[in-house]
């Protein structure tokens, strides 16, 4: 057999394995990007939730009027 033919077969097999490895790596990259985006959304939502709850006014007593609710009218 010609050495060039053997090298071409080896390169073809290596190319198939390389494409297979790139395909697997691309799938894992997409999964990691999706998980990272989901994590950022959750962390951003938690940050927004806790920042909103800390800026809300506390329970302040309502201002009272000059007369009581139980007045005796005659």
Brief synopsis:
By secondary structure, the chain is an all-alpha fold.
Helix content: over 70%
Structural class, judged by helices and strands?
mainly alpha
Radius of gyration: 35 Å
So how many helices? 1
Which percent range describes the beta-strand content?
under 5%
Count of individual beta strands: 0
Explain this structure.
The protein contains one helix and no strands. It has 74 residues and is mostly helical. The longest helix is centred in the middle third of the chain and has 53 residues, at 3-55.
Relevant terms:
mainly alpha; 72% helix
List the helices and strands and how they pair.
Layout: H1 3-55
